Amino acid sequence: MNKLIVLLMLLSSPVVAQTLEDPTRPSHFSSSTQQAVSGAKLVLEVEAIMRVGQQRRAVINGKVVSEGQSIQGATVKAIHPYSVDIVHELNGEWVEKTLWVAKSGNVKSNAAENY
Question: Which domains does the chain have, with CATH numbers?
């Protein structure tokens, strides 16, 4: 009887260990500030967005990209002041995602300004 109880306890532990989602979390926010693009293999993180003249550039996974360029199989569709729209292929379909800049610490909107 004791063995049966121990066995049932061991089998039920993975069910209890499920990750719970925060219902108050904004839909565009990720707790790790990373967005998975294509399964677990492709993770893109927007580190910064800058404006050079009339053109915006984004730093994604340490690489500077402009609109129309590709990074890890995803194409940058548009760069906004605080987000980047990308498109990528997932299971034979084109999917559009919005990646948001992590807003931790001080965010400088003008590189010429001091903190």
Answer: 35-103 (2.30.30.830)
CA 3 remoteness from chain centre? 45
Under DSSP, the state recorded for 20 is P
Backbone φ, ψ for residue 20 (5° rounding): -95, 140
Dig out the tokens for 23 from the structure. 């219902």
Report how far residue 34's alpha carbon sits from residue 97's, in angstroms, rounded to the nearest whole number.
Answer: 12
pTM surpassing 0.70? no
pLDDT in tens, 66-83: 999 999 989 999 999 999
What is the arrangement of strands in the sheet containing 46-52, beginning at the earlier edge strand?
Answer: 46-52, 55-60, 63-65
